[in-house]
Amino acid sequence: MRLLFIGVAFLFTTSAAAQSRWTLSAGPEWSPYGGNRFIGGRVRGEYDLIRPTKPFRLRMEFGGYWEPSQTYSASYLDGSSVGGWKQSMDLTFGLSGAITPFPRGRVSPYVTVGVLARQSWKNGSIFFLPAGSGTSSVHALSGTAGDIVFPVGLGFRARIAGRMFQAEMRRFQGEHTTALMIGTGLPF
Question: Which one of 3.30.420, 2.40.160, 2.60.40, 1.10.3470 gives the CATH number of domain 22-185?
């Protein structure tokens, strides 16, 4: 009988405390460019390498970004103008760490920093019309590049009805793009 009570107690305590190590997040990402804002969507999958019940979390993550074709233009005080269109996408893979003061709380704020390898593709064109000139120069912007990005952010995790949800605002240093990601723990 004692073994039965211990088994039932173990079942209830582990199911309530157990959290999935997998998280799937998605949301908008935007960046200022020439006075305009470019908006696209980012999706990200994360796997916690350290149990999510610890104050420090280490995650392996992979994700991608896509933005539709968008135009931009800007005028300067001297009468010259610039404009064009662009479209971009990327794939990222890397590690991120997070520190939280309340790892087991219902609501757990955290600070995150990471290092990601990124492969990006861009397509578009740009024109420049100097002041007082009737001719403009047009340049095609197309190519691919690989680089390393360092995202930093703030977020919080909340347990609602036995499920984990997270919201995170992340800024990619160097490019000044910002993403707002909403996610949930996967059931496996």
Answer: 2.40.160
